Amino acid sequence: MIQKISLRFIDKANMLSLDVVAGACAGLFFFGDMMGLSLPLFLYILLGMAVWTIYTFDHLLDAKKIPQKALSRRHRYHQKHFNKLSLITAFISILGIVLALKWLSWDGLLGAGLLLITLIMIVIIGLRFAYVKLAVFKEAAIALLYVCGIVLVPFWQQDFGFESWNWLFYAAGYFALAWFNLVFLSYMDAALDKAQGHHSIMTVLGKKRTRQLLWGLVAFSLMYMLILFIILPSFYHRYTLIWGMMILIHAISFMEHPSNISSARRRLELSFSLPILLILFE
User: Of 52, 89, 171, 250, which sees the most CB atoms within 10 A?
Assistant: First the structure.
């Protein structure tokens, strides 16, 4: 009974992108901890609100674009609850701006955050009207903006007397991870995307070249993990280990050829919450 309730909760959390929110906040903790920062709770709240708003807005746009009943469960859910989710998204957006104005000082972080969110919205909307072939850059662009989002606050608040810039190695690693995640999800959803008229790297490159890209990202990431263990001081090994675990979960899922796409998606999104394990090293 408890297991059934837990699975339903995890499924609903995935449907509402709450696991993505948890993963983004865990990523913020990952970089904040690496830079020796103790970030206040309100920064996690603002990031979570921003991430949820952006992802839900994107799903609502997809649901609105599909004239018939959507084939994917996520899009059907957003079609069914379109008005309710639209109102909640608008409310969270306004509340997020009000809280940001209240909690953040005009020292540049507020402006940088609003600028980044605006850029993300432009990319999300712009890609829907761009030339179809440009969809090949969609996943890479979103991955880059995702990493910028979770790194922005730690970067802005770090003590620049702290001379190490080793966190940049992990920013690059997180980009590879996020890109792999998005390309793999597009790979699994290819049939649905094609049937519903959505464009992605998979619909542009085709199955063979997308698989080659995924294998290339797996090989690069595994070699990169080994290099990080070798060249960085032992202090960073915990971060390499956590990032490596997330990569391995993605690589194994890819090599398994999952038949249950929903289950694979939940596993991949939950893996982004693994940085919470860093609390054990405190």
Answer: 250
